[in-house]
Amino acid sequence: MNETAHALGAAATLWELVDRRAALTPHRPVLLQGERRLTFGELRGHSERTAAGLYAMGVRPGTVVAWQLPTRIETVLLTVALARLGAVQSPVIPFYRDREVGFALRESKAAYFAVPGEWRGFDFTSMAERAGARGVFEAYDALPVGDPSTMPPPPACGTDVRWIYWTSGTTSDPKGVLHTDRSLIAGGSCLAHALHLSEDDIGSIAFPFAHIGGPDYLVMLLLYGFPAVLFEKFTLPDALDEYRRHGVTTAGGSTAFYSMFLAEQRKRPGRRLIPTLRLLAGGGAPKPPELHHAVVREMGCTLTHGYGMTEVPMITMGSPDDTEDDLARTEGRPPAGMEVRIVDGEVRLRGEAVCKGYLDPAATAAAFDADGFLITGDLGHLTDSGHLVLTGRAKDVIIRKGENISAKEIEDLLHGHPGVGDVAVVGLPDDERGERVCAVVERAADAADPTLTALTEYLRARGLAVHKLPEQLEVVDVLPRNETLRKVLKYKLRERYG
């Protein structure tokens, strides 16, 4: 990390980081979207006026404001404005629906809820009303504005909880993960340090900004002073024109993104898909070594992969100066300040980027050991060079396109279907998605075998988010079980169908 980025990384709060960067390079661009261009100075100025508008609405330091918005310049302005006020913000992934949204609003006790109105054919305002949300306001292309002189000073403490992110984990309901400005700055600093980026780079945010990766990336832009292209809707090949027009040098997101780019590259072998691209980077899902080598060989760029979670946005990251074998077969190394401890094969973590815990105090108590290390539930080991190799997960969670999916939530809903005697949901390896969701159904007595279409329609009707729907169905006479408690042996299902 260069000296300027290192000095900026010592900022106590996200707003202080925005303010310092704007003072250093006010005229350099930070956000690019279509024909729109926002500079670091404009990011500070517009966000402060939005903060004043929110203050006039009644938002105060500590007020909980939930938002469910697509990846747009306005979304970044809103989140920075809330950071200026010292509000507690609770981002919600845009493709979550009534079940998850209602739960997040109730658990966080959000006093305000920002939505896009009708977006991509879905009425978010109506959903907010069904959920009983308070203080609903639309923030798609217009934000509240006011006079900054009316506001109190910005927050000075970066270790207060000001962020509530949501993760499914292994339970049927999401868990509210508590972060501070400093934990998010530490996570973004880890990413920036590993990737060796510079102010000459052009980045890209093609994933939901409401994901924990959103502030990770924003912090990286602020530390190094380079811009990113925002994609409200990411599809290939449609997005390629924007990558080429802006000369993007670094892209990525998760294993699914690598696969999508590679598939497009194979349509035009011998010609670089994005001529300026030098680095693909991401995490959030298993990465097959074969996919790594294919991307490097066919796309002519470096591929670095990392390990993170909602509780710790960046734990380890591959670096361009790692060996090719380490890049292909490990999750990279932890940065200074991130302690990785392996206990009985399980990965445990301690450091500034680790969350403060969960909204539920009991979940917090269960998540940390006596030495203050977060118990991840992931299995792995460290190599002699300090690189982390993940070998599996103790948690029964499926990671599809970088998003955690609870198998139990899907199983609990499917148990109500008349054609399902019993069911086990597992994640199976998938080159495109990282993992795909497979439902293995035990036949119900005197019932016709259910079809995949029937089951997905059943789950949709009960409000399950689209990205959690099973993509594969297997119907069996009996599920494999152990001989003691008759527990379903999911590893046998993974072996059989994976």
Description:
The longest helix is centred in the first third of the chain and has 18 residues, at 40-57. Helix 2 runs antiparallel to helix 3, helix 7 (181-195) crosses helix 8 and helix 10 packs across helix 11 (289-299). With 498 residues, the chain is of the alpha/beta class. It has 16 helices and 26 strands. It has 2 domains: 1-395, ANL, N-terminal domain (Rossmann fold, 3-Layer(aba) Sandwich), CATH 3.40.50.12780; 398-497, 2-Layer Sandwich (GMP Synthetase, Chain A, domain 3), CATH 3.30.300. The model has no long low-confidence stretch (mean pLDDT 93). The protein is globular, with a radius of gyration of 22 Å. The strands form 8 sheets. Strands 2-1-12-11 form a 4-stranded mixed β-sheet, with helices on both faces.
Topology diagram in text:
Blueprint: H1 3-8, H2 14-24, E1 29-33, E2 36-39, H3 40-57, E3 64-67, H4 73-85, E4 88-91, H5 98-108, E5 112-115, E6 118-119, E7 122-123, H6 124-130, E8 136-138, E9 161-167, E10 175-180, H7 181-195, E11 203-205, H8 213-224, E12 228-230, H9 240-246, E13 250-253, H10 255-265, E14 279-282, H11 289-299, E15 302-309, E16 312-317, H12 324-329, E17 338-343, E18 346-351, E19 357-358, H13 361-367, E20 374-382, E21 388-393, E22 397-400, E23 403-406, H14 407-414, E24 420-430, E25 434-443, H15 452-461, E26 472-476, H16 490-497
